[in-house]
Amino acid sequence: MLAYLAIAAFVTAGLWPSPGTRALAVNPADQTLTEWFLAQGARFWTGDLSLVSDRMNSPEGINLLANATNLLSGIVLAPVTFLFGAPVSFAVLVAANLAGTASGWYLLFARGFRLHRAGAAAGGLFCGFAPAMLSQSNSHLHITAQILIPLIVYCVLRLTRAQTPVRTGVALGLLIALQLFAGEEVLFLTALTLALLTLSYAVVGWQQLRAALRPLGIGLGVAAGLAIVLLGYPLWVQFAGRQSVPNGLFPPSYFSADLASYLAYSPYSLAGSEESVRLAPNATEMNTFLGWPLLLVVAACTGYLFQSAYVRAALVTGLIAAGLSFGPEIVVGGERTGVAGPYVLLEGLPVVDGALPSRFALILVPLIAGLLALTVHEAMQAADLSRYVMTGGIALALVPLLPVQLGTVSRPEVPGFFSAGHWEKCVRPGGVLVPVPLPTPAAPEPLRWATAANVAFGVPEGFFIGPYGAEGRAAMGVYSQPTAALLHEVHQKGTVPVIGPPEREQAQRDARYWNASCITLGPSTFHDELKLTLDGLYGQGERIAGVWVWRV
To answer: pTM for the complete prediction?
Structure first.
């Protein structure tokens, strides 16, 4: 487990020298948003239990559960956030998710399934540091938040062994509730995996499954009942509450896996290169890049242990998951084949059709890890040559997949007006501050200013999923008020508009709509042009701790 922690520290080393002024090179915009969510989650300890927050997109707010908000992580890391800032919490979370996931699976393999520790170590390493985990570590921390998943699987394992089904069911229900707030998509994939494994066992290992049905049914019933009680209201807020959305944001055809990507190495692996990104939707969704040597080893291990009911059930489950990852149409080497993929069977299903197809490949990670751990366990018991052939082959297949450091870039320091608390001079408690430029999905940088103040004030617009598409469907961000649109244009073109009474009256109306206490201009492109525009709209600003301020 210390080795896993050391690897995680190495992978995230680029963030540690100065988390406040370093960002992940691949996905800095999502990092900005994740840090804001971590600060929002920390507000739990101040009594803010909101599931619809008015601290972004003021005054309408955002539905936190309709977004990947890392609420549980924000609550747990609140002491770090309050003492050192959300950027430090972000760096800690990136590393902790990797090391914690690896450690959890190691303990499950070694103690829950009682496998040889060498096999458990290899399985844990793959679960925590698979190429998919490194790819998703680029700010998709709701996906890498898998520390509770081995505990969930352990509870199911206890149920199959008829070990205190009621108490275990209670523990499982609590873990399900916690995981929903840590990473709901991972919870969905876990439930799907366990359901497919159970159905596969019904076909290939019925005798083993039949003996476990009664305690499994009791425990799952208790878990489901408790989870419904705990999650009924949050799920209602997510799917029917204020600022909820009726659909997924992205079309499944865009986030589908390329068949050729399974044979390739990702740039997050020792043997990978940047060229392989062309086989993925983008650099954060490289979920399928296992490499042909590992696939050969998986085939060999499957043949070696084919009499095992787990191996046969995992084979069926893995093939289904891989098939779903291709999306509605099979793509090979970037070329669409016109052949429909199994995912077409899910199209139109409520909630499920909002999933990103390539993420179904995440199911393969623990299945393969379990296969590798079990193979090492069996090989270590053997007295013939297979002991060395199988363990050596697994080691050789895993070495090219060892992780490399995540790339980082520099980013501006947050103005002292926000980091040193000067904002309190112009914003009443719980009020709204309008940062200029206003944060948008394409340029969310000003959200960092609110994050530095632990989200103590609200901001208009922002980077979020909300019901602002056609007919109330999901969209990224919100349409701009007239004054915001004017300022966005100045920020993009650098042209100072003509300001007259109509523009000043509209600026006052928009300030009242936002319920704004003050407007601030921080570092930005076309700074001088924005300053002249704001002076024309709101009168002469005053300079405070590195920013211009207009009280409204």
So the answer is: 0.95
